[in-house]
Amino acid sequence: MKTITYREGVVQAMADAMEEDESVFLFGEDVAEAGGPFKLSEGLLERFGPRRVRDTPISEQAIIGMAIGASLSGLRPIAEIMFADFAGVCFDGIVNELAKYRYMTGGQVNVPATIRLGNGAGAGFAAQHSQSVENWFLNVPGLKIAVPATPADAYGLLRAAIRDPDPVLVFEHKHLFNHKGEVDDTPHVVELGRAEIVRAGNDVTLVATQLMRHRAVEAAEILAGEGVEIEIIDPRTLVPLDIDTVAESLDRTNRLVIAQECTHDGSWGASIVSRLMRDRFESFDAPALLVGGDETPIPYAGGLEDLWIPSAERIADGVRRTLAY
Amino acid sequence: MSPKTQSARPATVPLEEQLNWQRAMLEIRFFEEECHRLFARGLVRGSTHLAAGQEAVNVGACRALRVTDTMAGTYRGHAAVLAKGAPLDRSFGEILGKADGLCHGKGGSMHLTDMSVGAIGSFAIIGAHLPIILGTAYAEQYKGSDGISLCFFGDGSTNIGSFHESMNMASVWKLPAIFLCENNLYGEFSPIAHTTPIEQLVDRAASYGMPGVRIDGMDIGVVHATVTEAVARARAGEGPTFIEAMTYRYKGHSRSDPGAYRPEGELDVWLERDPLLAHERVLVEAGVEQSVLDEMRATAEQTVNEALERAMSWDDPATEARLEDVLA
Predict the structure, then answer these.
(1) Per the CB < 8 Å rule, is B125 touching A101?
(2) Where are the alpha helices (DSSP H) in B1-151?
(3) In what order do the strands lie in the sheet with A230-234?
(4) What is the rounded distance in angstroms from the CA atom of residue A264 to the CA atom of residue A254?
(5) Could you report the predicted ipTM of this complex, rounded to two decimals?
(6) pLDDT tens for residues A97-125?
(7) C-alpha distance from A124 to closest chain B C-alpha (Å)
(8) pTM here?
(9) Mean pLDDT taken over chain B
């Protein structure tokens, strides 16, 4: 085992994928010469050359189009969208072309494109550079969505995404780039659609992704001190979703809390609750609870942003409330 | 390649090939007329956008490409996809929503696609495919091949954002691409003068550092020669070209549109410039007997009718088919 950062997991995943498969290449804004605005592609240009690591103009629609066209032609493109909020600029390309291409051509094409996006709040980048936007794409059949929280998953899910024959959106959380974690000496692919049971417990099922997963772990410590043992599940992939792992946990704990870095409506957490209400109604001893951000865009001032993002204490409080029912 | 209003027509295209052009244009014209009738009879759902009148642009351009070169077009794409080599019956089949249509009934008139002949898609979002051909063109460079990508789009598309991103990036990366604008003077119901501050769309090319040329899109010889030149540039690594082909659609924007916004007499002027009649005159001047051309016309009509009959006899998709092909 070795310890690496989330950032290093991303870089290594792309390097290993490019080493293994000549058809893999990366492009985006400042990914080549500068090694990426967040250094997520550091060293790749030097190692693989300008054909395989390319800087684009500030042109998100062109970036997504490139990814689509290249993957139709048998290549495996990795496109970087610097801030996930910018997906608004290329929303058409993602939802109307990338997602629908295979279906509306009657299966004539595979579109093995990987789109990486810089997700999430916590660094004071304000409203247009801080949103976690994966929920924008939940209603779009034809896409897969990965949300790694750890260096091992940042590596493993990205490798899986690149290998996947379908379009995959990989959301990399900006506040986790320096986060350290253990990986195998030879890190491996993490299959899409498999949740991780981060912590076992019998009192409450807590589902959380990315930054919220780490805050859930902190909340678990707080709660353990109060005699409450929560089970933390990180779905790691929102589409396809490993609902079975969550359902099995709910069957044992009978109480569900979701910690998500977004608002309530149209969220992946609300989707999980809805599915389990449909399929595991009898397993609920209390209403499911969503702990999320305020119903506002993300504010700039540090104190305000900190309040927007659910804290470990707020997550713990959600667990207490569901137990009090 | 400096902006000019007409390309020279080479004397070198073999007569056999020029006859093939005429055959293709005839089949497309009859195909579009059948589509028009099918809608009138209520046999086709949704809407359809016919390219009758624009055949010379689609056939002239596609016949300057290899089958392995890629072409993307718009929802007014029947002519382009047929010109690229898609079969008549499966094209009808898709428009009729049949299981054996090109896209197995999943796409319809606006999304005709035949990857086997390099017709990589027809798109219903204006300008959406222009960024996509950046990727197909880049892939050719990446793989070290001399293949190229061509996209058709209308005059209205030159006002949408993806046009600008695509023209810019194709130029700065010197991609082997051709941007072929079919200027038929109207974006949906709006005359171009109401939406566009310049009269010659070719003027936009220079602002992207891209050679541009404006041509008579009703003259198939000129279209073919111009695209041939652009193809050669692209294959030689000299980068993309913008071509503005002046043309006209004989039907309205879509099935429900009778085109009443067109000034009186305008349609008649363009009907006199029918590309099929124009090329027929060229062939006669080249020594082809009128009887040969008449027979070609009759055969084309029969071929199209037979293809339609076949397609109409096919089954509808199975109900489970609606759940297929979301993911690989």
Answers:
(1) no
(2) 15-40, 55-62, 78-84, 88-95, 129-142
(3) A196-199, A230-234, A204-208, A256-259, A289-291
(4) 21
(5) 0.96
(6) 999 999 999 999 999 999 999 999 999 99
(7) 30
(8) 0.96
(9) 94
